[in-house]
Amino acid sequence: MTPREPATCSMPLMSADCFSNDIHKLDTTNMMWTLISAKGTPARWRDFHSATIIGTKMYVFGGRADRFGPFHSNNEIYCNRIKVFDTETNSWLDSPPTPVLPEGRRSHSAFSYNGELYVFGGYNARLNRHFHDLWKFNPVSLSWRKIEPKGKGPCPRRRQCCCRVGDKIILFGGTSPSPEEGMGDEFDLMDHSDLYILDFSPSLKTLCKLAVIQYSLDQSCLPHDIRWELSAMTTNSTISRPIVSSQG
User: Fold this and answer.
1) Which of the 8 DSSP states describes residue 195?
2) Could you please report the per-residue DSSP string of 125-188?
3) Which is nearest to 71 in space by CA: 10, 15, 6, 17?
4) Residue 165 pLDDT level (bands cut at 50, 70, 90)
5) Is 92 left (phi over 0), alpha (psi -120 to 50) or beta?
6) Are strands 76-77 and 50-54 parallel, antiparallel or unpaired?
7) pTM recorded for the entire structure
8) H-helix or E-strand containing 228?
9) Distance of alpha carbon 22 from alpha carbon 11, whole angstroms
10) Greater pLDDT, 202 or 74
């Protein structure tokens, strides 16, 4: 018997339910794409992962893959190890295993702040679980640490948007299981329209307001603008739906 070649997903088959682990580069001066011929052991074929640039390296985390190769076979796996790609040498780097790891997930958010990688939320179909945890990865020590922010955070969700603005992360929307039958879509999922702010450098004023909320302190003696800000911090900030008139 001759050895069989591993299954690959060539470009003509991309429309046939196939995962990919290709890397393409966009030259923003002429808006031309180039397929990178990467060296080293690549990340596994996957989708719904994150790829975050820190310095000259790209950190790939999570996503959905298949146990048996690049094609869907209903044997999903969710990798929870970081894969690192060096954009200067076009090489995949080997990263040692770490003792503490977040659960594998897809459709999460990932962003960088102060040279470290943060991962929030996501979904694991094998566990049938949505997440609302926040993890930090240090690319120097190659270590993970779970972060416990102060204040009330978002409920478990996936597909949310996270944008960094200065020292703050603005989180909007996402999808979660519907709490009541008939309120979600055909998969019993519902879309959120709420907004949360994660402040990496809170002022003393912000910390004091968090203490007032946390310990349910009396607000009657506080200035009106402070009471308004406290109300805004504890009221759902959802996008209102358009009002439809009786004439359509």
Assistant:
1) E
2) TTTTEEEEEEEEEETTTTEEEEE--SS--PPSBBS-EEEEETTEEEEEEEEEE-SSTTSS-TTS
3) 17
4) very high
5) beta
6) unpaired
7) 0.85
8) helix 224-233
9) 10
10) 202
DSSP tag of 65: E
Asked if 147 contacts 137 with a C-beta cutoff of 8 angstroms, the reply is: no
Listed in order, strand segments (DSSP E) in the chain are: 24-27, 32-35, 50-54, 57-61, 65-66, 76-77, 83-86, 91-93, 109-113, 116-124, 129-138, 143-147, 161-165, 168-177, 189-199
Instruction: Name the average pLDDT for the chain.
Output: 88
With cut-offs at 50, 70 and 90, classify the pLDDT of residue 245.
Answer: very low
Q: At what angle do helices 204-214 and 224-233 cross, to 10 degrees?
A: 70
Query: Which residues are CB-contacts of 137 (< 8 A; sequence separation ≥ 6)?
Result: 59, 61, 82, 116, 117, 118, 119, 143, 144
